[in-house]
Amino acid sequence: MDPQVEPSEPIGWVGRPLLMGAAHQHDDLEINFVAEGGTMLYLFGGVPIEVGPGSVAAFWAAVPHQLVANSATRVHWVEVPFAAFLRWGLPDSLVSRLLSGTPMVSSPSAAVATDPAAFAQWAIDLASGQAERHRIAMLELEARVRRLALATLGEPVRQFTGGDPALRQVIAMVRHIAEHFREPLPIAEIAAAAGLHPTYAMTQFRKVVRTTVGDYVRRCRLAEARRLLVTTDLPIGHVASASGFGSVSRFYSAFTNECGVPPARFRREHLNSGLR
Q: Cα-flanking dihedrals φ and ψ of residue 57, to 5°?
């Protein structure tokens, strides 16, 4: 299974992680479990995040994320569609944390002994086509996410501190984008965050993230627009400006191309999701 596939139903699979050619996003709760080997390093919404052996991570995948380094040899993935995740009725504080772009990552010391068997069983149940097995898997996944929230409550997200110079430079740029994407962002300003000349900065960015700075900024703005559409009653025009888009027409075009539906329809489809 390609880890960049965007499911319309919950799915689970296992394998050796492949580095992502570019940052991507999809409207799901993504759950990772590193079963064997070393560490996965994500660039996630402007922050480098390490997921080590025995760790479980859960995050809202609408935030641009990219696996840029990996020594794990066996990882389980589960993706739960956004609407299904919202129907779980999780505590507002937990939902807000995930929608704000803060992943939950457990430490190996908080490992649950049953995780290897459980993740394998969930993949089987979700692919079984049997309603009752599907229901059981979803109930158990909800419980695992709630347990993960308890295990990570109050813990800072463990961040990457090493790596080659290009990765450190790109991390500085991505972090600046995450903090300022709601504002106009000249290339020179982004490059300055890493202390680089703009031309060289763009070369380094493409080398690591495999996409342009402009495309990455657009994806951050779209993730924020998704969040505002399902958590607020702001008019569409206000969502556009609050997300960093210079015009409503540009916002409509970018959102529809990325999400497959216009912003208003996206909001309507989630009105009964249990969040609002």
A: -125, 140
pLDDT in tens, 31-81: 999 999 999 999 887 678 899 999 999 998 888 888 989 999 999 999 998
Q: Give pLDDT tens digits for 168-191.
A: 788 788 888 888 999 999 999 999
CATH of the domain at 87: 2.60.120.280
**pTM exceeds 0.90:** no
Give me the number of domains the chain comprises: 2
Is 227 a member of any domain?
yes
pLDDT classification of 114: cutoffs 50, 70, 90: very high
Distance CA 260, CA 27 (A): 11
Query: Which amino acid type is present at position 187?
Result: I
Asked whether residue 69 falls in the same domain as residue 182, the answer is no
Please provide residue 4's backbone torsions phi and psi, each rounded to the nearest 5 degrees: -100, 5
Range of the domain at 184: 165-269
Rounded-to-5 percentages of helix, strand, coil across the chain = 45, 20, 35
- Residue ending a domain, choose from 126, 152, 178: 152
Report helix, strand or coil for 251.
helix
| 22 and 129 fall within a common domain | yes
Nearest to 125 by CA among 115, 145, 112, 140: 140
β 28-44/104-105 pair status: unpaired
Task: Give the lowest-confidence range in 10-14, 160-164, 228-232.
Answer: 160-164
